[in-house]
Amino acid sequence: MNLEYLSKILGVSYKGNPNFQIRSICSHKEPKKDSVFCLMDIKYLSNSLIENTGVFLIDKSSMSLFSDDINLLITNDIKSSFIKLTEIFRPKISVPKKFKSPENLTNFSSTGSFYTGSNVLIGVDCIIGNNVVLEDGVIIGNNVKIGNNVTIGFNCIIGDNVTIGNCSSIGSEGFGNIKTSNHLWLHISHLGNVIIGNNVSIGSNCNIDRGTIDATIIEENVILDNHIHIAHNVLIGEKTAIAANTAIAGSSIIGKRNMIGGMVGIVDHIKIADDVIISATSTVFTDINEPGVYTGIMPISRHAKWKRIAVWISKLDKIVNLLNFRKKNYGNNEYQ
Predict the structure, then answer these.
(1) Phi/psi of residue 166, nearest 5 degrees
(2) How many angstroms separate the CA atoms of 255 and 9, rounded?
């Protein structure tokens, strides 16, 4: 659609070429000339983004940041407009139908009935369980084993030699919501997909959400236990192992060769280095920049109190060293 038409259905004003053609939404990581980028935070604005993006959806207060030759969609409510934008560009998904194998198709076997949308590709030597749903545009590699009652969402890509346990969901809607002024939650349509590398093992009852615009990525040779949740736009580095009941919040980046224990919670936008071991039931709320073994367990309390306690806990080793220094050098005499 062109810029003028998109502005009308969004209910916003525009500036620039009314006939400029827009095909999709893009992120700051992958700008596109034929796409619109929503500027929710000016920290993402760069010369490269401006040069490689076709249209910017912006708050009215940000107009001064752009020259006259930039195509703009201008709104008084950037959050609501972004939600409408994702709804407009969300693809229309067909209802999956029971798969009917042609007589000459012998590249996979099935333990029962399964269902596919349009443009689904299935590699050779695959085993597909009962009641599996493959939505539009799904690509399945070679030698893939999919358990019963698995759903793989639209445009998701599964590599070779992947195993997916019973009742897992790949490419479900992410938990992306915006709170309105009257305390209602509006859901953001997620347009990205999930990309799973080769030789990945996924247990039963796992949920891996699709990205908001870009992909959620599980790199090669990752192993996931049962009951694991991986949120939108997370990246799991190669050869990482994650135990049961772990939850990783949106946009976190997990390094390579990590070992994450059971019931670990990782908050959003966390970055974890390569070769990190995280003890079971730990909560990760800050970046981990160096390899090593990490443990983080604290009782719940009011947040202001919790922050004060956390500061002192981080300094305990220094306090102990100071006390030992006083005892060694001054004995029972008062330190001056």
Answers:
(1) -55, 140
(2) 42
Please give the helix or strand (H or E) that residue 6 lies within, else none: helix 3-10
Phi, psi of 110 (to 5 degrees): -135, 145
91, 154 Cβ separation under 8 angstroms: yes
As a whole number of angstroms, the distance between CA 161 and CA 168 comes to: 17
Q: Is 231 helix (H, G, I), strand (E, B) or coil?
A: coil
From CA 236, how far away is CA 248, in angstroms rounded? 10
What's the CA gap between 1 and 23, in Å, rounded?
7
Please identify which residue in the block is written with the tokens 């001064």. Answer: 64
Active-site residue (options: 227, 232, 269, 303): 232
Q: Is 232 a catalytic residue?
A: yes
Q: Which residues contact residue 87 at a Cβ distance below 8 angstroms, ignoring those fewer than 6 apart? A: 189
CA torsion 16-22-26-31 (nearest 10°) is -60
Length of the chain counted residue by residue? 336
Least trusted range by pLDDT, from 151-165, 278-292, 321-335: 321-335
For the chain, domains (ranges, CATH) are: 3-89 (3.40.1390.10), 97-294 (2.160.10.10), 302-336 (no CATH)
**pLDDT tens-digit map of 21-56:** 999 999 998 999 999 999 998 889 999 999 999 999
Largest CA distance in the chain: 93
Give the 3-state secondary structure percentages of the chain, helix then strand then coil, rounded to 5: 20, 30, 55
